[in-house]
Amino acid sequence: EFRRFSLERSKPGKFEEFYGLLQHVHKIPNVDVLVGYTDVHGDLLPINNDDNYHKAVSTANPLLRIFIQRKEDADYSAFGTDTMTRKKNVLSNVLRPDNHKKKPHIVISMPQDFRPVSSIIDVDILPETHRRVRLYKYGTDKPLGFYIRDGSSVRVTPHGLEKVPGIFISRLVPGGLAQSTGLLAVNDEVLEVNGIEVSGKSLDQVTDMMIANSRNLIITVRPANQRNNVVRNSRTSGSSGQSTESSLPSSTPNILGNLLQGEEESDEEDIIIEDSGEPQQIPKAAPASESIESLSQIELLHESTQNGFLPSSEMNLNHSAGSISMEYEVPEPGRKSLEEDGTIITL
Amino acid sequence: MRRFLRPGHDPVRERLKRDLFQFNKTVEHGFPHQPSALGYSPFLRLMAIGTRSGAIKLYGAPGVEFMGLHEENNTVMQIHFIPDQCQLVTLLDDNSLHLWSLKQHGGASELLEEHRFTLKGPPGSPPSATQVTAVLPHSSREVLYLGTESGNIFVVELPSFRVLEDRTITPEAVLQRIPEDNCNRRSCELVEALREHPKNPDQILIGYSRGLIVLWDLQNNKATHHFLGSQQLENLYWQRDGSKFISCHYDGSYTQWPVSSDNRQPEPLENTVPYGPFPCKAISKIYWQTTKNGLPYIIFQGGMPRASYGDRHSISVIHGSQQTAFDFTSRVIDFFIIFSSDPAAEFDDPSALVVLAEEELVVIDLKSAGWPAVHPPYLASLHCSAITCSHHVSNIPLKLWERIISAGSKQNIHYSSMPWPIDGGTNIAPDPPQRDLLLTGHEDGTVRFWDASGVCLHLLYKLSTVRVFLTDADPNDNMNTLGEDEWPPLRKVGTFDPYSDDPRLGIQKIYLCKYSGYLAVAGTAGQVLVMELNDEDAEHVVDHAEADLLQDQEGYRWKGHEKLKTRDGPVRFEAGFQPFVLVQCQPPAVVTSLALHSEWKLVAFGTSHGFGLFDHQQKRLVFVKCTLHPSDQLALEGPLSRVKSLKKSLRQSFRRIRRSRVSSRKRRGGSGNASEVQEANAKFDQDALQEMELAPVQRKIEARSAEDSFTGFVRTLYFADTFLRDSSRHCPSLWAGTNGGTVYAFCLRVPPAERRMDEPVRAEQAKEIQLMHRAPVVGILVLDGRSTPLPEPLEVAHDLSKSPDMQGSHQLLVVSEEQFKVFTLPKVSSKLKLKLTALEGCRVRKVTVANFGSCKTDDYSENDLAVLTNLGDIQIISLPFLKLQIRYPCIRKEDVSGIASCVFTKYGQGFYLISPSEFERFSLSTKWLVEPRCVVDVPEVTSNNHVHKSGTENAARKSSPGGCGEDERKSVRLMEHALLNDEKVLKEIQSTLEGGR
């Protein structure tokens, strides 16, 4: 079925309203649908939040083609690049509904609805027995959640095999960030932390290094289980090329540079508050004097200092701004009575 | 970032670095930890102390110090100087003997180990046969007599340690002449004492443990006299003329014996139990000293009535009708008497009694009436009350120095005026470049002022804050007020007193302004005292104020100690630093940071709850700021819950043990369902085992969050006159850094001097910086337009510093445990930083700005940061570009208390505690180096009646240059490590020594 209707381009409104409008226009008020549109390149792209809705409206030239699919039998693979040219495949899928129905329906949103929690990086420059994992830490809602321990590993040296001390992952906290990535496992040997080798460092040193880098932690491990490694065509000739690397650097001189660059750009920014509020004076003191010019408003260098996250993709991809946002939490109104036993701490 | 990883190899800078920085551990101050042996050479006038970790330290005149370390790290049991030589022999508890020599090398003397030797018996003999119990270096300087547990006395040649087997004195030979009824094999077991005849070097007195004493003729190789003691022997001492000797015994008695040619088996002249008639403890050592007036001094250790005074550590001096038992607070290791060493002198004329107790050295002047103590110029007991903090002030103005000394001299009136009697050797070190003070705060509420300018750490003045407060202890309760008829006549001596009346009195922070003489001290119960130096006694009321750091925080209950009660009304203070203001923090938590600005007359203090500013001119609290985060419930409950969890885990582990015991008992019972129980038990054990295997060595990786405990803990406070608000006008400011990585900046308005009393000091918060990495802020510093740190208050006023550049833009340096960051001022924007923890895994523990001068040119010097990390490394980081210059390993990373106790000086030196009683001094600078440099010259031997066959040989040996001075220096530097009898460290030392050779 085709419907044609008009929208005011300058005031597109919210996605919710648009969705309601679509349901109204198609007279399917209680049916869940997926909404998509074709962009200028002919790709079928989804409309499921305010941002991509606004984007879609802005690309209308002047017509905007919108596709609606019933959610139950939607074909998620249809979205993406070259979708329009792959239409055939979509059709063939649709034609074999039995095949399709066996799969359980999992509703998966688009990548921009997520923020990255982890990634495997530098695959092209690392030996395939190693894995470099980047953990992204946002706020305090989810712990990094792993433990490390001392251990020993066997190395090949000019003098033959040698047992050397090493650092290993000893435990993953259930529900923690490390566990949820699936990229780290118990007994993985930690080789580097943010580009710095851990050999020769004590457990406490490595702990401190990881905590100091926790906002953007990059750890290189040798997985205990070597079976899930990426198989590369450069070494194993027969396999079909999953990742095509024509130029595999033999040495890895630029690892550090890459890493540090990445680190630098996502580096933290401290918060500075200027002249916060009224001068703090004790009751005995003279009332706030007129001689001192006092600024009472709080001026934050970063504007996004409200609590919580905005689910928008821009916010999440911008680390510095995103991480600022959880600095100041609204004080909880009902505070429990506090106690302290006055333990003496001598520094 | 990469520039920090690869320090630039600018050759000019590298050369300059060599001229500026150099790491040396120079000298150990204080009292040796766990002393175990004492020796004295009347000839050299040097004293030697051996320790349980195998170190020996020689002391002479102030500044004359030598150190040596036995590689074995075994306890030094005995030290004996070779008569009239620069040599000494030590006996360790592994039965090895070591010969040490003082040799001149490059103009200064050095202590070197020459030979080592372990006595070996015939094959198959028990180890006791050669276990050395007594050592006698013979006055001929050629042989050493070694008494053993088996009763044999071996003779070894010096310095080769060759055993002269034909001269061994066997028990059989001794027993030949003894009458049958006293003669049995057992009477010659264990040689307790060997003493050479004072006039006739061919005779030695041998005392056996069972009481038999024999005078042995070395020429004829036979016993000439027998003395049959009935009591177990402890020690022997010859009278100066050799006509009598005295023996002391296990039952607390001493006996005089005559020696004459007619009676070969004399009866005792006199047998006394000085503290009888009830059973007494042993007298372990005794001296008999003759005087011109005929009344001898009898000085002995122990002998107290067993039941009532058996726990006392005493040394008694009896001289005619005078008798005093000096009562020491710690065990007496050994003692000696300094007396006339001139062999021609007729009498001993003792001048001083030197006692080495476990925790201090006490010297008693025997010449002055009342036998007062002598104030030692070194070996100070730093730990007479536990050290809780230290503060170093460099380059003290002469005026203040003199006033402190004069205040201290008034406290020392009860000391003897006798010059220090142990005065061997010559100090040839150059005079210290400047007057330095080290202030130590103690658990008992005292602050001690030490002269730290030179090699000898010398107590100048002791300040007590106790008098301001009401404590349980009655100040009039004097231990020494014993009645006239008190028996035994005990007298407490020494200063070591580890018992604190009230731990709340403990001093936690000290700040001294050397220009104004203002001193601020802060303690465990939130007390902050501001003091002023007064040269006279005074009685006045201390102004008292309270600072409620919680302000409007509600529902908070302090469960710690109460605040200290103050004394009402005027209090009398002796000359010196007298408190005039007391601020008590509420809640009375320990003060964690303190800053004093003597020009603005302000003192700032911080605790775990917040910080405050007090105007000590107007005696008015300016403001307080609570640093507890609103959502900081966890921070407050943090320490409590941690304690709880520890308790819980302890309880669990006990339960586990109990359960496993129960189950094992059950297993033995073998009931019907035994196999089932067994299985369950096995499973349980396995689980428990797994748990145990996992638990101990793992570390959790978790980002610090705002909820981490103790974020509000104020770590650092700093006053600065800088551009806080705008770049055109500078103003006084106060900066505070917390444990949670927050920096608060307050703008202050201090009225001009002429209206200082009329207008109030105002403060208002101007900035707040939250460091994103949330690490504790350990240092805040403002650099002026020339990137020089702002001078101290009053420094410019005293023309001792260039006035800061107020034209250029100022910069703020914030040092957290993890990073160094430079911000611009007044707009706080990050300029550059150095990440330490993220790159190296170490954290900043201490940081100070130090001035380093070049050893090549006088006119070059620069300011750098001296940093001590939690790994015990010292790093020097340049200002203002934050580049790592150099790194030295300094303290072992396991030595947490050593790292915590470290203080840096303003000129690149530092101190840290290597034991509760010893400071190690180190230097990072090539220019400022304080280390002992001294010469021991062999005095001319004036003796006439001794035949010195080896006199020329001795001179020849002395002139030969010492061998491997470098190695020795290395081993000296490693000495402190030996304090911990750590196998790993031992190996390290050995490998270093071997590597050096």
Automatic annotation (TrEMBL), chain A:
Residue ranges annotated for the PDZ domain, each copy included: 132-225
SUPFAM superfamilies: CAD & PB1 domains, PDZ domain-like
Any one GO biological process: establishment or maintenance of cell polarity
The entry's keywords: Cell cycle, Cell division, Cell junction, Cell membrane, Cytoplasm, Membrane, Tight junction
Domain of life: Eukaryota
Main localisation: other
Chain ranges of the PB1 domain: 1-71
PROSITE patterns in the record: PB1, PDZ
Residue ranges with Low complexity bias: 234-252
Pfam families: PB1 (PF00564), PDZ (PF00595)
Subcellular location: Cell junction, Tight junction; Cell membrane; Cytoplasm
Annotated GO CC locations: apical plasma membrane; bicellular tight junction; cell cortex; nucleus
Matches recorded under InterPro entries: PAR6_homolog, PB1-like, PB1_dom, PB1_Par6, PDZ, PDZ_sf
UniProt region (Disordered), positions on chain: 228-257, 327-347
Entry annotated with the keyword Transferase: no
PANTHER family per record: PAR-6-RELATED (PTHR14102), PARTITIONING DEFECTIVE 6 HOMOLOG BETA (PTHR14102:SF4)
Family to which this protein belongs: Belongs to the PAR6 family.
Protein name: PAR6B protein
Organism: Machaerirhynchus nigripectus
Taxonomic lineage: Eukaryota, Metazoa, Chordata, Craniata, Vertebrata
Gene name tied to this protein: Pard6b_1
UniProtKB/TrEMBL annotation, chain B:
Native species: Machaerirhynchus nigripectus
Region (Disordered): 658-680, 945-968
Protein family (similarity comment): Belongs to the WD repeat L(2)GL family.
GO BP terms in the entry: cell division; cortical actin cytoskeleton organization; establishment of spindle orientation; exocytosis; Golgi to plasma membrane transport; regulation of establishment or maintenance of cell polarity; regulation of Notch signaling pathway
Subunit note: Interacts with GPSM2/LGN, PRKCI/aPKC and PARD6B/Par-6. The complex is enhanced during mitosis. Interacts with DCAF1.
PANTHER family linked: LETHAL 2 GIANT LARVAE PROTEIN, LLGL SCRIBBLE CELL POLARITY COMPLEX COMPONENT 2
Protein name: LLGL scribble cell polarity complex component 2
Function: Part of a complex with GPSM2/LGN, PRKCI/aPKC and PARD6B/Par-6, which may ensure the correct organization and orientation of bipolar spindles for normal cell division. This complex plays roles in the initial phase of the establishment of epithelial cell polarity.
Keywords: Cell cycle, Cell division, Cytoplasm, Exocytosis, Phosphoprotein, Repeat, WD repeat
Broad class of where this protein is predominantly found: cytoplasm
Basic residues bias spans: 658-669
InterPro entries, A to Z: Lethal2_giant (IPR000664), LLGL2 (IPR013577), WD40/YVTN_repeat-like_dom_sf (IPR015943), WD40_repeat_dom_sf (IPR036322), WD40_rpt (IPR001680)
